[in-house]
Amino acid sequence: MAGGPEALRALLRAANALLQQRRYRAALAVIKGFRNGAVYGAKIRAPHALVMTFLFKSGSLKEKLKSIAQATYAHSRNLAYFVFTYKGLMAAQARLQGKKIPFHSFFAACIGGWLVFGDNNPINSQIIMYLLSRILFGLARLAVDKGYIPQPRQDPFPLLAALVWGTVLWLFEYHRETLQPSLQSSMTYLYDDSEVWHDLSDFLIYNKRTDSK
């Protein structure tokens, strides 16, 4: 038993020495990427799933907690797998060609996206839509920076906000089946449920009555 703490310290020193070896850096970065993907996915999904589940989903407490755990696990797993795949392919391409070029990033991410996020389910759909909105903003800024489109004389954001809200409410009112389910739930709560009440209890305190009056 006396050698236990010393053996542990020796193991930690060996592990730290290994982490400093440059020849293992690419492989270790892939492992660290898997870890960061798992942690970040859990940190992002858990509070979101908690809020959305208790706001919009019915069922027992056990069912709600199970739903939150499943959504958190799926998001965490997918991000971990994607980062692992992306960084692994990046390292492999750089090793094969002897250097890193911009196409490597696009190719590796395309393969990772196909393999990990290709399944059309609610979680993957939310992630893809989140990324798509950021991509459109990024490409617009890049086009201005590169001179492909002129620098706007006025901030275009107010016009963008008007068009986005105008379009999404038109879709909700007349073609809501085209919208993602969680967005439908949110908008139903805001715009449909606000038109239904019976007395003060479900006008100010609750969204919907739970009794049989």
Automatic annotation (TrEMBL):
Descriptive protein name: PXMP4 protein
Pfam families: Tim17 (PF02466)
Chain segments annotated as coiled-coil in the UniProt record: none
GO cellular component terms attached to this protein's record: peroxisomal membrane
Superkingdom of the organism of origin: Eukaryota
